[in-house]
């Protein structure tokens, strides 16, 4: 079962409710035991990658990560975890192809599939609470 987190646009905060379900193509949350429909006008639902960073923190789409080299050096480029369609390079066919899933995005670089995040990534924020981290 996938985990999610929910950003409330009007309150600029993470929704405290922990129960979200899909129903007829619609996502709802339960508040006080009663269903409350959610939509993109009021909330943003983010999936868990079901992976963890170097310090054991669960990583969700929208998280901003810094990348560490095997010798411990921190790269000067912050990246965003995203979910959706992206172009991935296939070395066998020597061309880019559409792929769907979690990927890492950074300004000025091609999108890359998410790998073993626990080996190189550290969550330093997210796109809602820390947008300034993307200005590097």
Short description:
The protein has 136 residues and is an all-beta fold.
Structure description:
The chain is built from one helix and twelve strands, in the order βββββββββββαβ. By secondary structure, it is an all-beta fold. The chain has one helix at 117-120; strands at residues 4-8, 13-14, 20-23, 26-31, 34-37, 43-52, 58-60, 63-68, 74-90, 95-105, 112-113, 121-126. Strand 9 and strand 10 form a beta hairpin. Helices cover 3% and strands 56% of the residues.
Q: Mind sketching the topology for me?
A:
Layout: E1 4-8, E2 13-14, E3 20-23, E4 26-31, E5 34-37, E6 43-52, E7 58-60, E8 63-68, E9 74-90, E10 95-105, E11 112-113, H1 117-120, E12 121-126
Antiparallel strand pairs: 1-2, 1-6, 3-4, 4-5, 6-7, 8-9, 8-12, 9-10, 10-11
């Amino acid at each position: 079962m996938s985990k999610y987190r929910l950003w409330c646009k009007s309150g600029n905060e993470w929704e405290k409710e922990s129960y979200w379900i899909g129903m007829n193509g619609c996502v709802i949350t339960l508040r006080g035991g009663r269903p409350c429909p959610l939509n993109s006008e009021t909330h943003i639902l983010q999936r868990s990658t079901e992976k963890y960073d170097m310090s054991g923190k669960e990583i969700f789409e929208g998280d901003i990560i810094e990348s560490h080299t095997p010798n411990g050096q921190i790269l000067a480029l912050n990246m965003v975890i995203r979910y959706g369609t992206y172009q991935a390079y296939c070395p066998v066919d020597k061309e880019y192809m559409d792929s769907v899933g979690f990927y890492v995005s950074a300004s000025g670089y091609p999108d890359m599939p998410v790998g073993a995040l626990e080996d190189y990534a550290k969550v330093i924020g997210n796109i809602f609470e820390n947008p300034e981290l993307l200005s590097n």
